[in-house]
User: Fold this.
Amino acid sequence: MKLTDKEVRYVANLANLALTEEEVARMVHDLGGILEHMDRLAEIDTEGVAPMAQVLYEAGETATLRPDVERAPLGNELALGNAPLAGQGYFKVPKVIER
Amino acid sequence: MTEHSIDSVRDGLKRKEFSAVEFTRRAIEFAERENPKTNAYLMLSPERALAAAGRVDEKIAAGEDPGPLGGVPVAVKDVILTKGIRTTCGSKLLANYIPPYDATAVERIEAAGGVIIGKTNCDEFAMGSSNENSAFGPVRNPVAPDRVPGGSSGGSAAVVAQGTAVVSLGSDTGGSIRQPASFCGIVGVTPTYGRVSRYGLVAFASSLDHIGPFARNVKDAATLLEVIAGRDPLDSTSAEAPVGNLAGAGTGDVRGMKLGVPVEYMKHATGETAELISQGIESFRRLGCEVREISLPATDYAIATYYIIATAEASSNLARYDGVRYTFRSAKSDTLAGMYQNTRDEGFGAEVKRRIMLGTYVLSHGYYDAYYLKAQKVRALIARDFTRAFGNVDAVIAPVSPFPAFRLGEKVDDPMAMYLSDIYTITGSLAGIPCMSVPCGNTSEGLPVGMQILCNHFDESKMFRLASAFERR
Assistant:
């Protein structure tokens, strides 16, 4: 599977990455080579095989459920502690709505 | 410092040769002095370490048991959260991130008397096989300083090999514990998926991520795993399965145990690695094990399957780094979209961007069925290969890596070649079974080679029994 510049830019936009010209050229080359290898999956017959989204093993039906117990949340101050910009108890971001 | 084990620390404390605080001070001084040789620690945490050691001494003074890790210096990979201690994931993007809580594994280590002495270098967001993708510089292999320690948990392997920690925690998504353990000549364990809580492990690929131990011997690795293993309500994928006595699992006889050697693996193995593995298999025969060839036919599709699933999950998990919550925001953030895009472009390194791009592509409209869904089906076939094999054998024996530690810079420009070197470790990761690397010998150049032992889900005891017998051979 060969990738074009245009496809790389489209995917970069979906991934919220502002790639430089140089990075786009490198991605076209690298991703193309990797996808070529991945295309070999078409060879293997998976008719009737259920997709495996999670590791499965013998367990009770409700094994993943925990009791619904109250737990103290992190709290506003700690939650905002690593924000590059915060104030008044909120995360601050650039203006979203233009007048 | 370099000779200590969990048992020797315990004995030293018991015989009053040193207090936990004295031993911790010594360990920190030694790590400070030795670390420039490898760059394996990103940060030491003396304050927290001495506080933990103080609690151990108090317990001992009160006649109480300080716990199975009492006074033992433990290093933690920098993708595992430590409250109040910077956790970078090897990324510029998280260079100043101070977690507000501890990972469950970290909490359990301290509750067992362990002393967290520092955070270790790694490939950015655990993506890499050489530790060269860290924003804070590569790690050098303590055994051969011109070579890589392996990755992504290169720092955690290096500190144990170097002796600047007794044991450490790493994380493994496709081989990131076993491969560096093999390259550095130590023991590294990837437990069954769900055996150890992932709470506080920064997510890379959630259906494949594991936390596991590094140690200089099998018993220490088993002891650390026993401490961190077991159900945690904060990780819904953590398993209820009883953990049992792992620390004592190594003593049993392995006579009559059946081992399978996959034909698909041995056909790729060449040179001294293949020779050493063959000698290792011979040792198992001498220990009384019955060795037979087995087939894992879906192996040839494992690399493609892994790099589709892992990157797809990563592209989703790493969407959270948007310049809003986690420390770094680009100066070019005049608009919201500009903030997202420039923060991510400036903050992530080349390999992380490559994987986000790949993952976004395979999940994008029109390609989901051909790549992601197809990979999930092939993953089921890879897991089925193992289930069938374990109907006939107790364990599978395999190499860890096709070659020993390579030179820094040798493979950094060829991502596909780097991915292909993960062939022996990713199959076990995809199946979610426990697997480990145990030292198997050195090449003529003195480079360590690890042997991999893989067992069925939750059969860690059996795996440690085999590994211990192999270690004593």
User: Anything to note?
Assistant: DSSP finds three helices and two strands in chain A. The beta strands of chain A are 86-87, 90-91. The radius of gyration of chain A is 23 Å. Residues 63 and 81 of chain A are 34 Å apart (CA to CA).
